[in-house]
Amino acid sequence: MKSYPLSIKPFGAKAILVEWPQQVDHTILNDILLFVDTLKNQDSSSSWVWVPAYNSVTLIWRSRERMDFEASKRFIEQLYKNRNPQSEKRKHTIWKLPVCYEAEFATDIETSAHTLGISPYELIEQHTSNRYTVFGIGFLPGFMYLGGLPESLHIPRRKEPRLHVVKGSVGLAGKQTGIYPQDSPGGWHIIGNCPIPIFDASKEKPCFASIGDKIQFHTITKAEYDLRKIEAEIGIYNLEKVQPDA
Amino acid sequence: MLKVLKSGFFTTLQDSGRFGFRNIGVPVSGVMDEIAVKKANILLENSPEDAVLEITMTGPTLMFDAPTYICLSGAFLSPTLNNTPIENYSVIKVEHGDILSYGRLENGFRSYLAVKGGFKGEVVLGSFSQYVPVTVSKRIKDGEEIEFDSVVHYEPVISNLKMENHFSGSNIEVFKGPEFDMLNDTQLKVLFTKDFTISEKNNRMAYQLTEKIEGYSETLLTSGTLPGTVQLTPAGRLIILMKDGQTTGGYPRILQLSEASISTLAQKKFGDGITFRLI
């Protein structure tokens, strides 16, 4: 198991930022997940809240007592040393999400395809033929930072963000693709819409995906979309998932 | 029950916050000015987690349909109980049918109404705090009814506090943020000598400042943010995240406000000045 030189620095009086090298890399992501697993097991008094993303974990001190940075730093270094490589073999879920790429939802598919020098059909083909890794969840409740977009779909974000992007919109921006979990302003190119709720506060697990999981999109027609949307509204939608070895 | 006759400009139900869901992008929410709320809850001998109404800029008109005890804190909005002026940081008995209303904003921006035992509402992910899309509504609306447990008699240990407001100064205490070292000498000088102004873009999510500093061109990977994180955009704009602020971001986190300074900033409004002081 490879060990990285970690940077551990205070982030205000009540948080610590732990950083791995500045890279989007699956090996680093897995190392971060190992560290977080070890933390979960050893933080019996639930003193910490942790937010992993790409190459970092932000640890937030929950206790009302003062945070002792030096003692916490030693605790973090010890945790990292003691991380269990066994859980490295953990299985990440692959979530299969339906997307309707038809014109009604795909506001920017024509212009994006034109910019990329491909046809809208090829754009959809390429977008659905890759599995994307969840490198972080943040920004908005349930917003997943997805990595692994093929280079042929890398497109600069829109010069002027839209004030209103509808919930479920699937977009492209830079090296990323993603789904807007709710209505929000946004600067991504919209190429479709996913009828499955990405964030549902009424569920015990409000966001089905975890960091490290993978997302694969598949095409559905407008008729299927309408059906799935109704299912989602009455809360009976099913999530398709596969384990990597299945 | 508290009947909301008029809701005011922006009134929300808030408690100490929503913890444990930050890793799926859910902000902590909760009261913006923790210092003001802590005092009101202490005077009422409530638990620090008890929910209060956070009243922004313009007050609501409220009717109590049962006796209880209340305490107001934070911004001073010239409150009256049945048209008789009342003070902040005082335990006040209210009776069935009493009407609490507010007048002119004298100081601060966010006023709090605490009630003996706390207000009740829908608990979502462990908190009453209103934040869409976690809760269905983002604010209290006209005609709404808010639950509390009636208290007929209570002898407060301390019935009022005379004190200076904690938010009258313009100094904002900051720690170095994770990307502080990215700042050059020019940026540092401007940051710690200039007076900054709160822009019209200020709310529970973030406060933007009007004045810009020199920008930069580096790009960073998205990483965790906190309430009180000062982000610097490539164009040189300063954005201070607040209680409903995003949980991660890709801009350099140059400064981090102390907890006390988050309370101070929460009482600043469009046009108010602040200066950063490194601690």
Detailed description of the structure:
The complex is a heterodimer of chains A (246) and B (279). Chain A has 246 residues and is α+β, with helices and mostly antiparallel strands. Chain A contains five helices and 14 strands. In chain A, the strands form four sheets. In chain A, strands 7-6-13-5-14 form a five-stranded mixed sheet. The longest helix of chain A is centred in the N-terminal third of the chain and has 17 residues. With 279 residues, chain B is mainly beta. Chain B is built from three helices and 20 strands. Chain B has a seven-stranded mixed β-barrel. Chain B has a six-stranded antiparallel sheet with strand order 7-6-9-4-1-11, with no helix packed on it. In chain B, strand 13 and strand 14 form a beta hairpin. The longest helix of chain B is centred in the N-terminal third of the chain and has 10 residues. The termini of chain B are far apart.
Query: Percent of residues of chain A in beta strands?
Result: 25-35%
Task: List how many beta strands of chain B DSSP finds.
Answer: 20
Helix content of chain A: 10-25%
Largest interface comes to: A-B, 39 and 35 residues
Side-by-side strand order of the widest sheet of chain B: 12-19-16-17-14-13-20
Spatial extent as radius of gyration of chain A:
20 Å
H/E topology pattern of chain A: EEHEEHEHHEEEEEEEEHE
Strand content of chain B: 25-35%
Supply the helix-strand structural class of chain B. mainly beta
H/E element string of chain B?
A: EEHEEEEEEEEEEHEEEEEEEHE
| Distance between the ends of chain B | 45 Å
Structural class of chain A: alpha+beta
Unreliable stretches of chain A, pLDDT < 50, 5 or more residues?
none
Instruction: Supply the number of helical segments of chain A.
Output: 5
Mean pLDDT of chain B: 96
Assembly type of the shown chains? heterodimer
- What is the rounded Rg of chain B? 20 Å
Mean pLDDT of chain A, nearest integer?
91
Largest beta sheet of chain A: what is the strand line-up?
7-6-13-5-14
